[in-house]
Amino acid sequence: MKLLPILIVFLSLPFLISNTNNHEYYVSVTEVEYAKEEQALQIISQIFIDDFETLLRKRYDEDITLDIEGESDKVDTYMSRYLTDKLKVIVNGDIVNFKFIGKEYKDDITYCYLEIENISIIKSVEITNQILFDAFSEQQNIVRLKLLGKNKSFLLVPQNDTCVLKFE
Question: pTM of the predicted model, to two decimals?
Answer without folding.
Answer: 0.83
